[in-house]
Amino acid sequence: MTVPILPPKILLIESDPVATNGIRAALAAPGIGSFDVECVRQLSEGLERLSKRGIAAVLLALSLPDSQGIETFDKVFTAAPDVPILILGGNVPEALAKEAVGRGAQDYLLPGHLDSYSLPRALRNAIERKAVEDALYVEKERALVTLNSIGDAVLCTDISGKVTYLNLVAEIMTGWSRQEAISQPLAEVFRIVDGGTRKTARDPLEMAVEQNRTVGLTLDCVLIRRDGFESSIEDSCAPIHDRAGQVIGAVIVFHDVSAARAISREMTRSAQHDLVTNLPNRMMLNDRISQSISLARRQHRPLAVIFLDLDHFKYINDSLGHAAGDKLLQSISRRLVASVRRSDTVSRQGGDEFVLLLSEITHPEDAGITAGKILSSLGTAHSIEGHDLHIKGSIGISVYPEDGEDAETLIQNADTAVYHAKERGRNNFQFFKADMNRKAVERQSLEAGLRRALERDQFLLHYQPKVNLLTGEITGVEALVRWQEPDRGLVPPAQFVPIAEDCGLILPIGRWVLLEACRQARAWQDAGLPPLPISVNVSAVEFRDRGFVEDVRTILSETRFEARYLELELTEGVLMEDAESTAAVLRELKMMGVHLAVDDFGIGYSSMSYLRQFPIDVLKIDRSFVNQITSDPDDSTIVSAIINMGKSLKHVVVAEGIETQLQRAYLQAHQCAEGQGYLFSRPLVAAQFAQLLQSGKTAVVH
Ligand code: C2E
Ligand code: MG
Ligand code: MG
Question: What is d(CA 276, CA 264) in angstroms, rounded to the nearest whole number?
């Protein structure tokens, strides 16, 4: 079934019946289709009919009984702006009819054009034109709304480069309103420069027209807003063609990529920098070293790599927390940067390791001078979260070209030299030497062996008596750890304790020593031997461990060993590091009933006032002084000073390493109460020591 197409309704507003009849007749004649004509004589009737809608076109006489002239048109047009209006120009001046056209009428028809041929055509044209106009209007509206709602900025120009259109986003981004921008040259409204060179970027229109295709613009394009504000943009420009395919203008579409560019810049930066200190990281350092090497090679100059490893950083991190640790690292990095030239690179490798590249040295020795500067600048206290933190470092240095011709080798060799600095008592620097690699390999194999030593039960304790210098009576015993390594034999602590401290193994090893010492001492007591105080050495790493005090408590209770028989030996370094927290831990131990001794006293820097703040019971004079007392007057003065100082602080003074009767006599003469040394007994295995104890006295008396 086909839907019948109804003939368009034409409203004829004409008071002259002759004219009305003529028009009806013209429209009734067969031709290009029929019309349904409704006639009214007055404007008021016409307006009423229009209000009911359904009219396809109006034929309007301007002179009516109730309205005259242009006013007639205006009223009809206002009542039905969407309906095409054709003016019947018969009984009015042509000028008036033209005026109506100027105000929105589709056309005017002179009496000669009202025949059955012309009139239907004129009406059809008017109706169709109106329909096309409507469609175009809708299309344009849709385009405008779309352009204003998209996130991209859109800007159009004509072929001469004058702006013809901007959408809302383009207005905001350029700072130009559409009214102001229209007809302005493109370069005025759309000011773009290359972000890298700051030169004016290529005219997008020119490129699009020249290449007659959509073109992307300069990669790093920056748009300068009317008020000077800059934003990074990404954009494209496409030519606009007319129907014949001729380019008549261009449309530029762009959007703000400032945020995206900032993120990508930040990503590149953070890939090359350490997050905590903001220093270049390993990756960037490697690049810099490689660049410096190529330059140094051409200029026949040396360069140096300094590897800094912080000593005992781990306790600070463990005891004060990571936030304080991070602040300390930041403080250290500032001092490092201040110790070198601007052209040098300070990088953080992670953890407590820093690597510096000195790219402008003249002699390798210059690196030594810088290393010395670094060590002394680190030396002064870092004030972090209310604590005065002291940290030291060990430095290894490698020099191009002798110690390596690429970044990796130079860093590795500097790292090897660090271990040697550590072996030499830390807080010093060492230049890399070729034979260090052999030692490094040796060290690594020791470390690997140590990791398995506990589970394989390879540790044992030797016991050395402490004696009353006057009577030779045994007053105590010191437990000294040994490592029974299948290939190397009995390894002395000096060879493995520092390694165990570095890799953290000292914690389980130290716990084992404490447990074994307490267990053994308790066993001797249980066997009926006279109760004897036992001393255990505690390294700084153990002492700083948060669980230390608890471990001591647990071990004492597990072994049912009385705290008053346990003495812990600490070195001066431990006391010096962080006086406040040290004193707190010492007090806890004291409260438990444990005795405390300062081991190797005299080689550190403790002053009397310093010592006074700690609850110490015993001072052990370092072997190196005792060794020299009878030959070096200086040392003998120090020793007597220490003895007096100990006495005034009410500490028991013990001299270590007494080997000769002469030394013993000197110490005794200076009222040193107790001593330890080969003269009385070497460290012994448990069974031998028990025998010695049973006999009551050491071998040597007077
Ligand atoms: P230290 O605590 O000062 O122990 C005294 C060291 O001097 C011992 O060396 C002992 O054998 C040695 N010695 C004793 N009398 C004489 C003497 O008359 N002449 C000479 N030349 N030496 C004598 P050892 O056992 O090799 O221990 C060395 C250091 O290793 C100890 O020094 C101590 O600091 C550390 N150490 C030993 N055992 C442990 C332990 O269980 N834990 C920790 N953390 N360190 C330990
Ligand atoms: Mg000791
Ligand atoms: Mg000692």
Answer: 20
